[in-house]
Specification:
The protein is an alpha+beta fold. It contains 17 helices and 18 strands.
């Protein structure tokens, strides 16, 4: 589906006839109205702008859309779209301003604004809602959840690891590609995760981050077994399957992961990894990562750590926690925010450093989020009538939580007496107290990233990561 005009909700096609006489401009904004996490990490708009909005509208697109809506039962603003093609060289007459990608903003603040730049196609920002909102809420929500998990794990590393900063980048591995609804979801969500971590098996997401955020290699992976590569040897040859993993991949300094519960995890640890193969693991110079894949995660992980400890031993780090020698554990089954916390509570509480653990997260990372996870909304906040802007908003009596903001909105940082700052959403045309106090000296935190078909600002993944974790 390459026709940008048709990437829209059906009822939008009738909205050009619904505005009051004299309307010649519209102003919309996006915000997170709350949700699971108190702040969001903005990410993903650049992919959308380059992949889609950088391409001009063509006559065939207008023809196709005209025919579609005629059969579909909706009117169609043909004249406006013809004007885009014939008078504007196919460039969309809109201006998009947004916080720099990687910025962490408290909920209830404007993240992006979009306004029309052509009075004869003033309805264009409303038409773009479906595309723009989707382009923002999904990657931002994935990046936000991934960030929250990074903070969670970092807390346990700070408590139990000697070098938390050196470890954190590879503590949450993306296993989500097969659990999402489409390849593009894997691309966008997988790239969003890489703002916070550098481990991924979602090739589409790594490729997306490389291509659209100017990175040579955004994430890394290691050789790892799946059940089929173990069970193909037959149960009677399970130990040979494991030995093959060591001989193929276990080199000095290498890391190799092996799922070990195709049959009996406890037997595999006790009799095979910690028995027949123990010396081979040690002499290889590699780190073996044992992967459980069933059972109650906190219970299974702790027991696996204890059994591996009994077989391979441990050292005590400077903070008084055990660090396993030669082996680690990765949990990839049933992994989400709450289970990670439960696993780390149990393991660290039993005296094991978080150094010993890594997590792989699948559907819960890239798929078990929706627009309401952070209550994203795209609303009109101002209309221009005969050249004069006036604020508009919704104020539903039945649900004050869905009140929208009014005016031509902007995001600023209020500087506090202690030298810190906090984000505030203001109406540049209104009587905001911050404007009265600071006037024009209060700069906008929003950057014009797109205007009339041109992408005006780009960010590298390094820029985004530095901003997210500065």
């Amino acid at each position: 589906m390459d026709n940008l005009i048709l990437d829209v909700d059906s009822y939008k096609s009738s909205h050009y006839l619904q505005h009051p006489p004299g309307a010649d401009g519209l102003f919309y904004y996006i915000e997170s109205r709350g949700g699971r996490f108190p702040e969001v990490l903005f990410f993903g708009l650049q992919y959308f702008l380059e992949r889609y909005l950088s391409k001009p509208i063509k006559s065939w697109m207008v023809d196709e859309a005209k025919e579609f809506f005629a059969l579909h039962g909706e009117p169609f603003p043909e004249a406006g779209w013809r004007r885009v093609v014939e008078k504007l060289d196919g460039h969309l007459p809109i201006r998009i301003r947004a916080v720099p990608e990687g910025t962490v903003v408290p909920n209830h603040n404007v993240l992006l604004t979009i306004e029309s730049t052509d009075p004869e196609a003033f309805w264009m920002p409303g038409w773009m809602e479906t595309q723009i909102l989707r382009a923002c809420w999904y990657p931002t929500t994935v990046a936000t959840q991934s960030r929250a998990i990074r903070q969670l794990i970092m807390g346990y590393l700070d408590k139990s690891s000697d070098d938390p900063k050196a470890e954190i980048a590879f503590k949450l591995h993306d296993f989500g590609a097969r659990g999402v609804s489409s390849r593009e979801s894997a691309m966008i969500g997988g790239a969003a995760h890489l703002v916070n971590f550098q481990g991924s098996d979602t090739v589409a997401g790594v490729w997306c981050a490389n291509k659209y955020y100017d990175h040579k290699m955004a994430a890394f992976s290691i050789p790892a077994a799946e059940h089929s590569t173990i069970t193909a040897w037959g149960r009677e040859n399970e130990v040979e399957a494991y030995r093959n993993m060591l001989r193929q991949f276990a080199k000095p300094g290498a890391v190799v992961a092996c799922v070990s519960d195709s049959y009996d995890l406890w037997n595999a640890i006790d009799k095979m990894w910690g028995g027949e193969l123990r010396e081979e693991v040690i002499k290889s110079g590699a780190t073996l990562v044992v992967r459980p894949d069933s059972g109650d995660p906190p219970e299974v992980v702790l027991r696996a750590l204890q059994m591996l400890d009994a077989k391979f031993g441990h050292t005590m780090n400077a903070k008084g926690y055990r660090v396993l020698k030669h082996v680690r554990v990765i949990q990839g089954d049933g992994v989400e925010y709450d289970s990670i916390k439960a696993i780390l509570d149990r393991a660290v509480g039993a005296g094991y450093s978080a150094t010993c653990l890594t997590f792989g997260m699948g559907g819960a990372l890239l798929q078990k989020v929706d627009r309401d996870t952070q209550k994203f909304a795209y609303k009109c906040s101002a209309v221009r009538m005969n050249g004069v802007w006036r604020p508009v908003r919704k104020q539903p009596v039945t649900d004050p939580g869905k009140d929208s903001k009014a005016g031509r909105l902007d995001l600023v940082r209020e500087r506090l007496a202690d030298g810190t700052g906090r984000y505030r959403t203001i109406d540049r045309d209104g009587k905001d107290i911050l404007l009265q106090l600071h006037g024009a000296s209060l700069p906008s935190e929003l950057v014009t990233v797109y205007e009339n078909g041109a992408i005006l600002k780009r960010y590298s993944l390094n820029d985004v990561r530095a901003r997210a974790w500065s």
